């Protein structure tokens, strides 16, 4: 969202939305389910146009890629989005998930039978034959979602590559009685294979004090804008409840939370007025040029993704998993989040996850920091658009 022009601060046509996790005297938790609004086509853009020097520098810093390797990966990932759409349609009920392999630059689609394998390969994907369909595993996860999780069970998800459910437990706590009980119930309830993994720490939402940067405020809470929509912007639900007033960086009134869902989901939208307006931009913080938003095509697991936030600015990583249920450290559970290897810190809540010029989601929470590393979850943007009947503001 673009700021008002005042004597204290000026904006240009390229200035865009910044993202920040909640900043406040309280720490909230949450994730959210994803649905899909129809994404806008992005066929006119090229990987060359997206590969700005700043983005290439960020991918070298965070992913260890040379500029040439980063350009090649961006082109491969763009093709993988198109391939995934065609392959999933060809697979039908045999579809069991997909993932992108950065080394080969190819998308693999898992199938429960060979009948559609030829059509899927014709679409440009590699094929792997597995036992359980995506529909079967998604249903199994929904049954596990009904269980009450103890603190040291961090999250659970469907892992398409492993063709099973994966439950992540905080390291050193697998033998705890309550954790063992949860795992036993999960295996009995799922009706599908369950694998146990470990994570260094439990997740939490990223809260921080009301310090400088590019925030918006509601009460004592500081958060960042996610993406402009027609009439306002979307952000994280734990940033404020419906009806709460929102102030800008200069403490002037922006608008009001028109809808908010947390816990279970972690999304919200805020109306904009009072001399404020929206633009289809994500702030690059001087690391890269501000990013124009041209659509919301969802990227496959395994592709690269970047995040903008007012505390830690611009960082990149990999998309690790989708439809993950997260159990935040205060016991709040959020469903259908997307997991990434991108770091984040307090004050980054609600901020933008973007791939190229395609909006992906708003920051919910995670663990770790941008000094030693960590993982972060976001609420997919298409679900938010569908839930509130919003239209993404695109360039």
TrEMBL record:
The active site is at residues 238, 266, 349. GO terms for cellular component: extracellular region. Pfam families: Pro_Al_protease. The keyword Disulfide bond applies. Gene3D superfamilies: 3.30.300.50, Trypsin-like serine proteases (2.40.10.10). Residues 1-28 form the signal peptide. It comes from the Bacteria. Keywords: Disulfide bond, Hydrolase, Protease, Serine protease, Signal, Zymogen. The keyword Disulfide bond applies. GO terms for molecular function: serine-type endopeptidase activity. Belongs to the peptidase S1 family. This is Streptogrisin-C (Serine protease C) (SGPC). It comes from Streptomyces formicae.
């Amino acid at each position: 969202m673009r700021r008002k022009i005042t004597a204290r601060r000026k904006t240009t046509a390229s200035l865009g939305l910044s993202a920040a996790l909640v900043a406040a005297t309280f720490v909230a938790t949450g994730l959210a389910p994803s649905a899909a609004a129809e994404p806008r086509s992005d066929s006119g853009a090229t990987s060359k146009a997206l590969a700005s020097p700043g983005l290439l520098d960020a991918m070298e810093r965070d992913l260890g890629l040379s500029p040439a390797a980063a350009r090649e990966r961006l082109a491969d990932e763009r093709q993988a989005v198109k391939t995934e759409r065609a392959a999933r349609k060809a697979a039908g009920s045999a579809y069991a998930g997909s993932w992108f392999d950065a080394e080969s630059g190819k998308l693999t689609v898992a199938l429960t039978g060979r009948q559609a394998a030829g059509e899927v390969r014709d679409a440009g994907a590699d094929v792997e034959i597995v036992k359980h369909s995506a529909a079967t595993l998604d249903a199994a996860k929904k049954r596990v979602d009904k269980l009450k999780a103890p603190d040291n069970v961090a999250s659970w998800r469907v892992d398409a590559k492993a063709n099973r459910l994966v439950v992540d437990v905080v390291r050193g706590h697998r033998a705890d009685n309550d954790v063992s009980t949860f795992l036993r119930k999960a295996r009995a309830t799922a009706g599908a294979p369950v694998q146990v993994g470990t994570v260094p720490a439990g997740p939490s939402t990223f809260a921080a004090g009301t310090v400088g940067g590019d925030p918006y405020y509601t009460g004592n809470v500081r958060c960042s804008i996610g993406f402009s929509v027609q009439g306002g912007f979307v952000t994280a639900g734990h940033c404020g409840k419906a009806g709460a007033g929102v102030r800008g960086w200069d403490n002037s009134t922006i608008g009001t939370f028109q809808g908010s869902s947390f816990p279970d989901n972690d999304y919200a939208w805020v109306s904009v007025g009072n001399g404020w307006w929206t633009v289809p931009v994500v702030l690059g913080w001087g690391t890269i040029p501000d990013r124009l938003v041209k659509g919301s095509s969802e990227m496959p697991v395994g592709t690269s993704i970047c995040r903008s936030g007012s505390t830690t600015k611009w960082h990149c990583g990999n998309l690790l998993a989708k439809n993950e249920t997260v159990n935040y450290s205060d016991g709040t559970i959020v469903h259908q989040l997307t997991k990434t290897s991108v770091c984040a810190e307090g004050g980054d809540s609600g901020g933008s996850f973007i791939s190229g010029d395609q909006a992906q989601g708003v920051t919910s929470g995670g663990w770790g920091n941008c000094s030693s590393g960590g993982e972060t979850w976001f609420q997919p943007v298409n679900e938010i658009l569908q839930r509130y009947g919003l239209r993404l503001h695109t360039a």
